[in-house]
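[Automated response] Your request has been received and processed.

Submitted sequence:
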Amino acid sequence: MTFIPAGTEVAYTITYLEMTEAPAPAPALPDDVRLERCEQPPVWFFLSLYDAVGRMYEWVDKFNEPPEAVRTFVQHPDVSLYVAYRHGWPNGFFQLDWRKEGVCDLAYFGLVPEAIGGGIGGALLRTAIATGWSRPGVARMTVNTCTLDHPRALDLYKRMGFRPVRTEDHARILTRDRDPSQFPA
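Generated structure:
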């Protein structure tokens, strides 16, 4: 892929995945990583994490929602936001959504570009999955990714035990320049 300027229409595919059995217990995060569950996170905090992780991958949808709708989502009692800190700053986050009975949706997961390749991604994802399954009554865990996300995202979810259940093709106008050669390895 080459540089694509903002304003270009691009096609992309969303892959929806699910897991119907809890995996083996997750190994611990590295000793120098601190995971914190956010209590009633303000919209600005969620959006700053969302932007830091998703800027390169065209994560813009939450910026197009009314702030009150975003607040209702991030502060819902059945939605939890967890932030992984290393060296005093957020390296990544995950958000779990238990609003649908029997289902935990991994609504968001990702690392900031500076943390990719630092050895915490797999452990953080396993922690997210274990946390999702820890709530009583969960029978299925879901996640989705798309071809605009990091090129290794889909394979990572499959390695963790998710299986694709359907795909959808879409198109969107890029809001930012896109240069896949700059994606962190």
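Summary generated for your ticket: The first strand starts at residue 9 and ends at 19. The mean pLDDT is 95.
If you did not submit this request, please reply to this message.
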